[in-house]
Amino acid sequence: MRWLARLLASLRQASGTDGEREKPGTAGVPARRADAESLKRAFQNIHDAECVEIENDRLGKATLLYIRSLIDIRQLQEFVIAPLQNASGADLRDTIHAAHLTEMDSPEQAETAAFKGAVIVLAGGRLWSISLASSLSRAVEPSKQEAVIHGPQDSFTEQVENNLTLIRRRLAASSLKSERFLVGGLSHTTVILLYVESLTNPELVRIAREKTAAVRSDAIFDSSHLSQFMEDHIHSVFPQFQQTDRPDAAAAALASGKVVWLVENTPFALIAPITFFDLFQSPEDYIHRWPVASFLRGVRFFAFLFAMFLIPFYVAITMHHYQMVPLDLLFVVLESRSEIPFNPFWEALFMMLVLEILKEASLRMPSKSGQTLGIVGGIVIGQAGVEANIASNLLIIHVAVTAIASFLIPNYLMTNSSKLIQFGLLLLAAWLGLWGITLGLILVLIHLNGLTSLKQPYFAPLSPFYGADWKDTIVRLPLKRMSRRPAYLKPANPWRFGAGSGRPERKG
Q1: Which of 102, 265, 352, 506 has the fewest C-beta atoms under 10 angstroms from its C-beta?
Q2: CB of 346 within 8 A of CB of 395?
Q3: Tens digits of per-residue pLDDT, 366-404?
C-alpha cells in the first residue's frame, strides 16, 4: 500500500538518528520505526483507511491517518488540515486548537483511538489523536419500554456521552462521579460507571469498579451482555441488574445510593444493587398520588402471582383435589372436560406452549403485523382448540388471564422469569398437586433469600428485615414520609432531605 510506504518514510525522517535531540515543544514518546510497523499491520486491508501528508515550513511534515467512514470530514478540513497548512509554529498544540487533542503513548493506543473516530497525527516524531467522530445518534425520543402518560418524555440513545448529559442535567452536582472503562478486546466498548460520591457506600463503588474491570470478553455489544459478566449468581432465573432507558429512573437510582452503568451503543443503563421488589416499580409510581401508586403496585404483585400460579393451581385441583371443588362448580369443570382426550397437565402444557409461540412470533414480525397476528392467532387457535376438543373452555380462560397478567409486570426480564417458574410449578402440580405447588413456592423463596445483587441482599427489606424500607416496597407512602434512603444500601448519607434544599436562586 503506497500510503503506508509514505507513512513509514515520514516516520523515519521525523525520528532521525538515535542520538538526535528532541525539538522544543515535542516532549512525549517518540514514534519509532517499530511503531510504524505496528500501525502498518493494523490498517492493512481496510479500504476506508486514508493517509494524508501535509508539509509546512515551520511544523515540518505531518502525516494524518484516519478511517474515513468514522470521522466528520468537514471538521477534519476545518479544524485539522487547514490549521496544519497555515501553521506558524513548531508545536502542534499551538497549531490545532481541538478540544480532544491527546498525545498517544503507544501505537496500540493510537489504533484504538482511530477506530473510535479519531484522526491520528504523526508530527515531530510524536503520535497525536484528535477526536472527530461523526455523529450518527438518533434524536432523543420518548421511552418505548417504560412509557408514561405524565412525566419526562425523554430516553437514552446509543450515544453514551448524550446519555451522560441527560443524567447530569438532572443531578447538577460535583459529587456525581463518572469513571470510564474500555471493555472488550475487539469492541473496545466504552463503559461509564456513575455514582454519587457523597452518599453512595464506598464498598459498593469498590465492588462495582472491580466487577467492571474484571470483565473478560472479546466484545460487549449491549448492556445485558455486560450484566451477565458481572452477576453474582449466573444460574439464577431472576435478573440481578435493572435495565432502564429512562434518564429520570437512572438519576433517581443514583440519588438513592445505587450505581449506574452506561454502555456505548446501547440505549439501556444498568442499575445495581436491586431487590426483588424493585422490579415491580414503575417510574409513574412517583408521579401518581400515593394511594393510586400503592394500589397499582398491589395489582402488579397480584398479577405476578396470577401469572405463576393460576394454571398450576387449575391442574392441581382437577388432577388431585377435585373433591375440594364445590359441587356446582365441579359440574361445570366436568362438563367442560367431558370430551377432552388428554389429562389436564398435557392440555395445559400444550396451550401454554402455543401461547409462547404466539408471543414470540408477534415479537419477531413487523409491529403492525405482529399485533394482528397476536390478536387473530389467539382468537382462532383458542376457538379451534375448543371445537376440536383439544382444550376446554375453562382452560382457555385461565390461559388468557395468565397472558394478560404477565403484561402487568413492568420489568420485561421479570416477565421471562415468571414464565420459567410457571412451567416448573406446572410439573410439580401434576406430580404432587397442591403439595407440589407449596414445595415449589418454598424452593423459590429459599432461592430468593440466597440471592445477592452486587453483594447486597436481593430479598431485602423482607430478608433481612428493614422496617423503614417498607415505605417504598409493596406500597408507596407519601414522599414526605420517605425521608431515608434504603437501609440495605448502607449509604454514606442516609437522609434524603437536607436543610435549605429549597432555597431561592439569587440573580446577579
Answers
A1: 506
A2: no
A3: 766 666 666 667 777 777 777 778 888 888 888 889 988
Total domains, the chain: 3
Tell me the residue type at 109: Q
Return the DSSP state at 495.
Answer: B
Query: pLDDT confidence of 143, banded at 50, 70, 90?
Result: confident
Task: Judge whether 468 lies within some domain.
Answer: no
Contact 166, 156 (CB under 8 A): yes
What is the tens place of the pLDDT at every residue in 86-135? 876 666 777 777 666 788 888 888 888 888 888 888 877 788 888 888 77
Residues 120 and 45 in one domain: yes
Task: Inform me whether the pLDDT recorded for 296 exceeds 50.
Answer: yes
Which runs of consecutive H residues, i.e. helices, occur in 407-492? Answer: 412-432, 434-450
Eight-class DSSP state of 472: B
Say if residue 269 is in the same domain as residue 315: no
Neighbours of 18 (CB within 10 A): 7
Whether residues 165 and 254 share a domain: the answer is: yes
The answer to whether position 281 is within a domain reads no
- Same domain (yes/no): 294, 426: yes
What is the domain range of residue 98?
A: 2-131
Nearest by Cα to 211 from 188, 240, 186: 240
Sheet containing strand 101-103, strands side by side: 49-56, 60-67, 118-123, 126-131, 101-103
In this structure, is residue 409 part of a structural domain? Answer: yes
Q: Are residues 210 and 176 in the same domain?
A: yes
400-411 pLDDT, tens digit each: 899 889 889 988
**Residues 212, 101 share a domain:** no
> Can you read off the three cell numbers belonging to residue 471?
415505605
User: Which three three-digit cell numbers place residue 297?
Assistant: 403496585
For the chain, give the mean pLDDT: 84
Query: Which among 472, 440, 411 has a CA at the least distance from the CA of 238?
Result: 411
Of 411, 434, 457, which one is at a domain's C-terminal end?
Answer: 457
Distance in angstroms (rounded) separating the CA atoms of residues 197 and 155:
25
Task: Tell me: do 313 and 394 sit in the same domain.
Answer: yes
Joined grid coordinates for residue 375 = 390478536
Taking the C-alpha atoms of residue 229 and residue 212, their distance in angstroms, rounded to an integer, is: 9
Whether residues 269 and 297 fall in one domain: no
329 found inside a domain: yes
Task: Taking the CA atoms of 431, 435, 441 and 446 in sequence, report the sign of the dihedral they define.
Answer: negative
